[in-house]
Backbone:
């Protein structure tokens, strides 16, 4: 039987990375064979593109094209073969991030992102997307608390993340069955309880 594809989204600092490990472990306890991966990245070429995307200054359209170039490799080499083998794939970000960051954040027309998505993915979508939502100021404080050096996106000003957040929320409103908004201001135990119920509904 074909596996399921779950993606985690949210502005930087919203907590998706914290929850990814727990989610993978929860699914393994349900007997699923789980593959955890991330974007940009997930393949040797994708990780090289990631290094460029997180450090080099570039035009927003160049950025978007490279995101989708990395994504195509990721889908063809990692995600699709794993799903076909019955594995469950969890990705730290996927196409919704391009709508949110390049569309919302950088101001690229949504239609351009949609055109690339249709061209490269031909209707391929996650079975479930968990959108970790948090006010941008709270996310910024959490990021600062990690002590890690910020990448090119994390250096953006608050207004950028406000636009990213709103673009994510717009997508969730457009696709409420696929995208579940998780209120990241809740404590971790409450979030896990909510996630358990949702995941069990598709297991
Ligand atoms: P992120 O998951 O935040 O990495 P880390 O947890 O290591 O900081 O992803 C890196 C950045 O890439 C993030 O700031 C958002 C950005 N990004 C886009 O702008 N568009 C995309 O399509 C994707 C997948 C990521």
Residues:
């Amino acid at each position: 039987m074909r596996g399921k594809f779950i993606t985690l989204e949210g502005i930087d600092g919203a907590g998706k990375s914290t929850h990814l490990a727990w989610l993978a472990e929860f699914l393994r306890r349900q007997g699923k064979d789980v593959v955890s991966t991330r974007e940009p990245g997930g393949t040797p070429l994708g990780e090289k593109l990631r290094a460029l995307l997180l450090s080099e200054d570039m035009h927003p359209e160049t950025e978007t094209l490279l995101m989708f170039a990395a994504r195509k490799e990721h889908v063809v080499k990692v995600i699709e073969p794993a799903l076909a083998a019955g594995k469950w794939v969890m990705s730290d970000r996927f196409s919704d991030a391009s709508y949110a960051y390049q569309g919302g954040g950088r101001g690229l027309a949504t239609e351009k992102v949609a055109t690339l998505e249709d061209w490269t993915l031909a209707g391929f979508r996650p079975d479930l997307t968990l959108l970790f939502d948090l006010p941008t100021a709270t996310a910024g404080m959490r990021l600062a608390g990690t002590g890690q050096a910020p990448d090119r996106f994390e250096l953006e000003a608050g207004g950028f993340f406000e636009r990213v957040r709103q673009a994510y929320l717009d997508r969730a409103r457009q696709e409420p069955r696929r995208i579940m908004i998780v209120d990241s201001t809740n404590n971790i135990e409450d979030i896990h309880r909510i996630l358990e119920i949702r995941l069990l509904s598709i297991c």
